Amino acid sequence: LSLSGGILTAETVKLTERETTAELSGRYDHRQRTFEGRVDVESGNVGPWLAMLGIEGKGQLTAHLSGGGPVVRPVLDGRLRARALTVAGARIDCVELDAKANGATFTVFNGSAAAYDVTAGMEGDGRLPLPGVKSPEIDLRVRGILFRRHPFPDVDAHAALGATVEARLGTADGRLTAKAVAPARGGFEAEATLVRFDLSPLAAVLP
User: Fold this and answer.
1) In whole angstroms, what is the distance from residue 46 CA to residue 18 CA?
2) Residues of 124-161 as b/e, b for ≥16 C-beta within 10 angstroms?
3) What is the value of pTM for the model shown?
């Protein structure tokens, strides 16, 4: 690390702990409140790090994050790859996604996941609930859903993250809709509607 003229520079900082390695490089201009840099993380087992959060789990993870700009409105690019994850008893075979962020606005693309014999592709966008952000919200689209190679309808989901948290989801064919609300005053409300929803692909593969 070096500091000169209010600019902190890290050529390469490498940290290794058990099966995890993290590398950091970049620079921070204190006077301009700007930065640029890159972080790369490789972990053969995230279990010890989850344990620090009080969560039991394990699995492999690779993450890359790079970008720069004003600290209050950075432009970032990220990539996440995870394999053989177990988190609080839930098993996730694979998660892959790429993401971009410009300030509070983000986009997720090239996403995919596999768990419990279900595979699907994912993409999303929205505004993160950061300080000063009005009407934070997230839209998620799940495409190409397969359960043991049997197709299911695509799913669209939307979440509004204001004082009242509201989430909605529905299948592309309109046969399944669901809504959940957590009012600012407390409590929880949920409802779901099924209209001629076809469960035959699920029944066909059950024992």
Assistant:
1) 10
2) bbbbeeeeeeeebbbebbbeebebeeeebbbbeebbbb
3) 0.80
